[in-house]
Design brief:
Blueprint: E1 7-11, H1 15-27, E2 31-35, H2 38-47, E3 52-56, H3 64-74, E4 79-85, H4 89-98, E5 102-106, H5 110-132, H6 148-161, E6 167-170, H7 177-187, E7 195-199, H8 205-213, H9 222-226, E8 231-235, H10 242-253, E9 262-267, H11 271-274, H12 282-289, E10 292-294, H13 304-320, E11 326-327, H14 329-337, H15 343-357, E12 362-363, H16 370-377, H17 386-400, H18 405-412, H19 416-425
Parallel strand pairs: 1-2, 1-3, 3-4, 4-5, 6-9, 6-10, 7-8, 8-9, 11-12
Helix pairs in contact: 2-3, 3-4, 5-7, 6-7, 8-10, 13-15, 14-16
Length: 435
Amino acid sequence: MASDRDTILVVDDAPDTVEVLERNLAAAGFEVLTAGGVVEAVSVLDARAVDVVVTDLKMPRVGGLELVRHVRENCADSAVVVITGYPSVEGAVEAIKAGADNFLPKPFTDEELLRSVRAALDGLRARRALEGRSGAPALKPGLIGASEAMRRVRRAIERCAATDSPVLVAGARGTGKELVARAIHYAGARAGGAFITADLAAIPPADAAREVLGPAGDASGGLAGAARGGTLYLAQLDRAAPDLQAGLARLLDAPAGPAGPRLIGATGEAPAALAKRPDLRGDLWRRLAAAAVELPPLRERGDDLLQLAAHFAAAAARGANRPVPRFSDRAIAALRSYAWPGNVDELQSVVEHLVLAGGTADVDATDLPALMRFSVLRDRAVLRPLCEVEREHIEHVISAVDGNRSRAAEILGIDRKTLREKLRRGPAGTGDDAE
C-alpha cells in the first residue's frame, strides 16, 4: 500500500544503532527503511524514492561519503543527514561539500535526531517549491499564523531575503529560529547554494574557530568554506569564543561577494541585551543586529496556537493513518491558558503524542499533560499582589523545564542571578530562600 508519509532511509553498519534510529523515527510518524551498508543502501534507492537518507560517515569497505556522492548524482530529490563524531569534523565538512544537507554529531539525543531530520525535510520541500514556481517557498509549520507578530516576522524575512547582508535571528528555544533562517536562504538569491548549520553550544570553544572558519581562520575551509555561495547558520552564536567572534568580524569586514558565505546567527537573547554583554564584540553584533528578526514566544501569538495545533494534529494523524483528533472546548481552553515555555516545539511534541498515543479521536482536557490540566483550573480573575503572580509564573516555568534554572532564566528573559534573587525573596518578599 502506498504511503504519503515522509520516508527515511537509515544506513549504518552497527545493527544496534540502526534499531534505535529506526524505532525513534518510526515513533515520530516517519516510514523508515534500513540498510547495513552503502551497497545495500544503493539497492534500496534504486528500488524506490526516499525523502531523507540518514547515514553514518565511518563504515567499513565503502564509507558514507561515497553514499552522499551517489545520492547527489542519482537521487536529486532526496536530502542527506550525515552522522559523525566531532573528531572527524573535517570529514563532515567534506560530506557537506559533496552534497549532504546536514550533519549530526555524536552523541546526540532523540530530539536532536528528529530536529536534524525535520530540518533536512524543510530544505527539501523548499527546493521542491522553488522548482515548481518562482518566488519564496511556502512557509514552514513554525511560521504558520495570522497574528500581527507573525506578520511582522514574515515581512522581516522578505526584507532579509532581498539582500545578502548578515542577519541575526533572536527568539527563545522552540520559536523556529532555524526555520526563519532557512526561509531567508531559500527565498533569496542563494537558494541554490548550501545551507550549513552548526550549534556552537555543541562545539568545544577551543575548537570552534578552526571548525567554523577552517585552519587558516579565513573562511577558506571548515564549515564556512563549505557554505561558500550559500548560507552559514550558527545557532547560539552568543556562545562564540573570542577568537571565533574576531574571525567572524573579519569575515564581515572583508566580504567575498556572492561567492562567499552569508552569515545568519541565532540567539536566545534579545538584541538589546546582547549589546550590553562585555564578552561580545560590539562591532560584530552591531553588524548582525542591523538586520534582526525577533521571534515572539508562542504565548504572544494568540490564535496562531490553534492553527499550529491543527496543522500538527493533521500531519501526525496522516502519518500514523489515524483520524484527526477533535479538541473539546475544555482542551482548547487548557491549550490557550498554558504558558508554553517550550514554544512551537513543545506544542508539536504534545500534539503528536496525543495523536500517536491516544486511543480516541476526541481530546479532552483530561488527556493533556498534568501541568496543562492545572492551568485551565486556575482562577485567572482573582486579584493578587504582583509579586505573587510573578512568583507563581516563575515556579511554573521552572516546573515546565524539569527544574533547569538556566533554561528557565532564558525563557523568562532574565539572568540566573536575577532568577535566584526573585526566588529567595519568597512569595511576598518575606526572604524565604527557594534555593
